[in-house]
Amino acid sequence: MNQELLSVIDQLHREKGISQETLIVALESALLAAARKRYGGGDNFQVEINPRTGEVQVLQIRRIVERVESPSEEISLAEALESDPEAEVGDEIGSYLEIDDFGRIAAQAAKQVMFQKVREAEWDVVTKEFGGRQGDIVNGVIIGHERKNYIVDLGKTEAVLPLREQMPRESFRRGDRIKALLLDMRTTSRGPQLVLSRTHPDFVSRLFEKEVPEIAEGILEVRNVVREPGERAKIAVYSRDPNVDPVGSCVGVKGVRVQAVVRELHGEKVDIIEWNSDPATFIARALSPAKAVRVSIKDMGSEKVATVVVQDSQLSLAIGRRGHNVRLAAKLTGWKVDIFSETQMQSEAGLDERAERVASLAETLGSQSGDTSLLRIEDLPGVGGNMAEILRDAGFDTLQAIAHASVEAISALPKFGPKTAAKLIQTAQDFLGESSGETPGLMELPKTDET
Predict the structure, then answer these.
(1) CATH classification at residue 427
(2) Domain count for the chain
(3) What Pfam families does the record point to (predicted)?
């Protein structure tokens, strides 16, 4: 029995990293709880455990009295004289208890106390080892999984990598070594638990810190990191030394530094962005790998909006697969980012200009008794120079001529199909019908149906 006790203490010492002295104190507390449960009383019990032999003794101290009123704390003089002939009333005398007599309930109480004390000791060990390391990278070995959560051995304790903190399509096998961010420390009914993450933005930041000495030394500062785990990450870096290139330092010679990070992230793309205090410059850089032609910003207090124009060929790159690139750029900079191609921007500018002209002319008409002769057919929304020239050549050189034409007549013209013709006629009719009253609304014409 004594050797079994020593074996249990030694096993807990090796597996949990808890000192043998702490475990012996925990066992003493458990036996005291069991003694009180079995015999009643308060602080009149003592437990002695020999750490070399494993021998356990529980001593009950009672006061000698003439008449016993509290058996758990008092003993009669007659009974005391049986073990000590020199005993006198008022003295205290100790008697050893048989642990086997404690009973099932007392034994259960001892287990609960022992479990609680061991758990507290575990928490002390974990706090001492990992207390100041939240937000740091830890290394561990996969030892199993429960309900899609990986269990990771960190040496003196275990940690969990929850499903929500795993990267998409990521899988590990027993024995695999992994790196992860120490996200949280908490106590559970099963003891202390460390929570790991491989999806947190700080995981990327810490990986770069390990690969780039300039970050660890404080020459470079990571200002922000945003991620869509498994797809793309963007990291904004600032250099405190004008002679140190922040992007080049993070990329490394032949890309070795950033490639090491990408390998750990299982191929997740990483864009390294040089931070800038000027929002327009920072936003343009944040859209990397796309290149912005121009950026205009509007800070309205509650909302900050940036309008970015890119070359037509760069539009899909700027937006990114499923919108990843523009979404991450917005998160990185803190600005709402609207992206347009040069063609889209020119088209929008043309529509805005035409709308203003139509509204102005309509207002003029309102003061000139409905004289529509001031309007050109180019003023109709959706009618460009080429379309206007085709219409004029065919004799449709006024709004009235278009409004009174048939769909067949206009659809017979080059570049005009039935749908375009119908829409054009309807627009002209609406405009003429409203010119004496309300300002006509804009209507976007389809460019062509077919040729």
Answers:
(1) 1.10.150.20
(2) 3
(3) HHH_5 (PF14520), KH_NusA_1st (PF13184), KH_NusA_2nd (PF26594), NusA_N (PF08529)
pTM attached to this predicted model: 0.61
> Which tens digit of pLDDT belongs to each residue from 158-189?
899 999 999 998 999 999 999 999 999 887 76
Domain membership of residue 341 (yes or no) is no
* 116 lies in the same domain as 37: yes
Q: pLDDT tens, 16-35?
A: 777 878 878 888 888 888 78
State mean pLDDT over 314-327. Answer: 92
Full 3-state SS string of the chain: CHHHHHHHHHHHHHHHCCCHHHHHHHHHHHHHHHHHHHHCCCCCEEEEECCCCCCEEEEEEEEEECCCCCCCCEEEHHHHHHHCCCCCCCCEEEEEECHHHCHHHHHHHHHHHHHHHHHHHHHHHHHHHHCCCCCCEEEEEEEEEECCEEEEECCCCEEEECHHHCCCCCCCCCCCEEEEEEEEEEEECCEEEEEEECCCHHHHHHHHHHHCHHHHCCCEEEEEEEEECCCEEEEEEEECCCCCCHHHHHHCHHHHHHHHHHHHCCCCEEEEEECCCCHHHHHHHHCCCCCEEEEEEEECCCCEEEEEEECHHHHHHHHCHHHHHHHHHHHHHCCEEEEEEHHHHHHHHHHHHHHHHHHHHHHHHHCCCCCHHHCCHHHCCCCCHHHHHHHHHCCCCCHHHHHCCCHHHHHCCCCCCHHHHHHHHHHHHHHHHHCCCCCCCCCCCCCCCCC
pLDDT computed for residue 369 by the predictor: 43
